[in-house]
Amino acid sequence: MSGLLYMNIQEEDPGTDDVHALLLEHLADMRIHSPLESIHALDIAALRMPAITFWTVRDEGVLQGCGALKQLDTELAEIKSMRTAPEHQRKGVANLLMHHILSVAAERELKYLLLETGTPDAYKPARLLYASHGFVECPPFADYKLDPYSVFMRRAMQV
């Protein structure tokens, strides 16, 4: 029997075959909705950098989704590569992963979590998920620039 109670979140290499395939699907989907210069997804090499923690969500070994946290400094981190496999959408995968990321952020005593996502309608479910977890729009951060295809969000952490 599968379901939310059986999902397992674990750190995993983003180059694992099924994870890599999901990340490639993520990039391909973004190319449909945004111009190349507005796509800010990280490749496998970048997701393996020491400043990044990468997780997968699996149910009985089957990949459900993934996400990462990029440490920007001692107080800030950015959520990256959040993706639910299409066949597992609306099962609570992203919500479960978001709770996990928020817990890790609290353990690390971060002051803010930041993210960038798209403005096209295809990204509306992501924007709603982030808003439901307390994220609000903010100006661009780090190396990002204003872009009509991007929305920037942050969440203050209670430390």
Strands, helices and their partners?
Layout: E1 7-11, H1 17-33, H2 44-47, E2 52-59, E3 62-71, E4 76-84, H3 93-107, E5 112-118, H4 124-132, E6 136-137, E7 150-156
Parallel strand pairs: 4-5
Antiparallel strand pairs: 1-2, 2-3, 3-4, 5-7, 6-7
Description of the molecule:
One of its GO terms (molecular function) is acyltransferase activity, transferring groups other than amino-acyl groups. Its EC number is 2.3.1.-. It is an enzyme of class 2 (transferase). The chain has 159 residues and is of the alpha+beta class. The protein has a single domain (4-156), classed as Gcn5-related N-acetyltransferase (GNAT) (Aminopeptidase, 3-Layer(aba) Sandwich), CATH 3.40.630. Helix content is 28%, strand content 30%. The protein has four helices and seven strands, in the order βααβββαβαββ. The protein has helices at residues 17-33, 44-47, 93-107, 124-132; strands spanning 7-11, 52-59, 62-71, 76-84, 112-118, 136-137, 150-156. Strands 1-2-3-4-5-7-6 form a seven-stranded mixed sheet, with helices on both faces. The chain is globular, with a radius of gyration of 15 Å. It starts with 6 loop residues before the first strand and ends with a strand. The mean pLDDT is 92.
